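Morning!

As promised:
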Amino acid sequence: MKQTISVLVENQAGVLNRITNLFARRAFNIESLAVGTTDDPTISRITIIVDSGNSVVEQVEKQLNKLIDVIKVRTLDERNLIGRELVLIKVNATSKTRQDIMTICELMGARVADISPSSLTLELSDTPDRIEVFEDMLRPFSIKALARTGVIALQKGSSNI
Amino acid sequence: MKIRATAAIMECLLEQEVDTVFGYPGGAILNVYDELYNYRDRIRHILTSHEQGASHAADGYARATGKVGVCFATSGPGATNLTTGIATAYMDSSPVVFLTCNVGEPYLGKDSFQEVDITGIAMPITKATYLVRDANTIPDVMREAFAVAATGRPGPVLIDFLKNVTAPSVMIDYEFVPWTQNRRLGHIQALANAHELKAPEPNQDDIDTLVDMLAESKRPLLICGGGVVRGRAHKEFRELAEKLDAPVAITVMGGGGFPGDHPLATGMIGMHGSKASNVACDECDLLLAVGCRFTDRVALQPETFAAQAKIVQIDIDRSEIDKNVLTDHHIVGNARRVLEQLNGKVGTFHHPEWKEHILPLRAPSVPRESEKLTPKQALEVIRRMVPEDTIVATDVGQHQMWSIQHFHFTYPGQLLTSGGFGTMGFGLGAAIGAQVAFPEKRVIHTTGDGCFRMNCHELATVEHYHLPIITVIFNNGTLGMVRQWQHLIYHERYSETTLDRGPDFVKLAEAYGLKGFRVTTQEEMKEAVQAALDAGCGCVIDCVLDMDEMVRPMVAGGAHITDFLLH
């Protein structure tokens, strides 16, 4: 089962290294990982998605809690979270196919980030599921390059970590 | 007050009441050693032969005293030589602060001479690592490092100073704050709030639940783990065991947490556990493990481990709960605090039938009569002749198991052994650390010929500091434990385990200025031990043993705990 772990850490050199190191050493698999600063520039938020059983996630949480640079760890409630990911997809586009691609973009709410005579670069911010749908729809046009940021997530409502 | 950055390092050591450090100097750490020269009347530095020896000595010092050990080393190879010692301390939760120096800021990341990313290397084997690039942070970092090493579940911490930070011209603001007060300062306070730097107070409901479970149990078994030793909870543990009238199995790391000769003690548990301990584990209806992480050497087969029992775990580290074995109940907290509170609430019980069933299974420790010296005879001779409070440092392998089976440890810090990491070559360094800490006590170092060869150059340290350590080599001309596995599991294919080679350990001891004895019989053993006890200097006793001696009993790795391969 996929689970989202949100970790607040000190924004210092080597912290990300320490966290990924822990995942490698304890043989926890990371599905996705995203890092960025929070409203407090001394604190970063790391959002990690793991696809493992509850006992593994519990171990991950406990082990993360032991790291000195980790301020807070929370496994987010899956039914009650907002998870978003940004994807950039460069797809082959000629004058013949461009319109079909644009229709998909409109339906999915994606934007055109760049255009060239033979390609379109599209951007979409959405849930991982919808991003996968978007990717599947574009595959017939031949995807030249794709980059995903990894999911960032917050709990819905006023609850906070 | 402005003082030199290096003086601040020394003052911070004094804040922590450090009076002894172990180490080895070198280029990058020259400035720190230059400052140490000014402090040599207050901080005693023990110079070893090799950084690894220093790391084990600082670890042994920490284990024997319960204080934080301190170890210095230079950059590059000096730092990497520490790593086995750091990992050893980490696996056994021993509080040691390692101080290394690195190249100066302009040379960092340039693959400069003797440069290595030691904070990166040490990351998975420390509680925390610090790279000090700004001299002003020295007091904070030093205080935090000691707090982190000593509190909660203890463990090693590494601080790497850039050389320019330690330059004699660098002056920083510093004010002496004793360690009892400096935990309220700066970042440590925030850290303490977020990380329970102090162990969490045991939950009262959890304790009440356990009290009820203990009252219902007809066949309780206690496991004394390393947490009892590390938390110095031996008195409380003994009180609990006696109130419950329950058999007590002792893990390798738990040696000294419960008296080995106590009427309730059933000896070691697990791979080389006694029949009494392992059968009790299999048949008990309640297993209460204190400070034990159920490693693969104890819970050999986690699925069937204590299958009839409700398993209860008391541990200071939340991440140990349910990590290896699923528990029915747990209490997170410092062993001493939890047991204190438990003892206040738990009643007194009697389990005569259960004890009658388990305790007679303890193997009689009568040494087999033999012309040639046997390991049991050798240990029996030592046990009878040395003072009761003798500290025993071991290396790793057959002699380690024999030593733990035969000596009866009665207090924490009496047994120094690398239980988690299984580091060959740990013993002599650890013995040095213990003897430096307790000059008045007798320290015995038991080792094998394989282990001893790994770090025997520390005999130079033994000689130089006049440490009367007695090294007893269980010399069977083979890597005994590996040979035992080859014999039992690998169809007697003795691949690269026969150590038919020098040196002559008696001559080696003499070359280092120590006394050496070679013994082949029990009588010679008695004479040698007496001579060593009277010698007033370090001694090496080379016990010539049969290479086919085996550690008994034995359960194979991954097997059910009562499926003995050897009885």
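The mean pLDDT of chain B is 95.

Hope this helps with the figure draft.
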